[in-house]
Write a structure and sequence with these properties.
The chain has three helices and four strands; from the N terminus they run βαββαβα. By secondary structure, it is an alpha+beta fold. Bound molecules: zinc ion.
Length: 115
């Protein structure tokens, strides 16, 4: 899935498999219907559960999800989104965390001081 969908429990369960690794973007639609990503994120273990937490939090109205086969791919995608979107203004205050117990570096800032 890479289309934009409304961030509802039904859409998350329909589009995101249980215990799926992946990266996602949360945001809003602007008045002409374009997606405004405000929050890049990922899950290394269970994207559906993480996205359902965001449904409950009720902050964002829409989402886009990219399943990945590996934790490294999910991390790399999240880092890319973070650095690309940072200039446009996003809600994430901190750089994506490294996967637990893995020494992957962000390929975009080479694991600078912000990691
Ligand atoms: Zn980085």
């Amino acid at each position: 899935m890479s289309e934009i969908a409304q961030l509802t429990r039904r859409n998350v369960c329909h589009n995101v498999g249980r215990r799926t690794k992946g990266s996602y973007q949360l945001g809003f639609l602007d008045p002409v219907g374009s997606f405004l990503p405000m929050y890049p994120g990922r899950s290394d273990t269970d994207s559906r559960r993480r996205l359902l937490d965001h449904v409950r939090a009720g902050i964002y109205t829409h989402f886009r999800f990219f399943p990945t086969r590996t934790v490294r791919e999910a991390f790399t995608r999240e880092c890319r989104d973070y650095h690309l979107l940072l200039e446009m203004g996003i809600d994430n205050a901190i750089h994506p965390r490294r996967p637990r117990n893995l020494s992957y570096e962000c390929p975009y800032c080479k694991g600078g001081a912000s990691l």
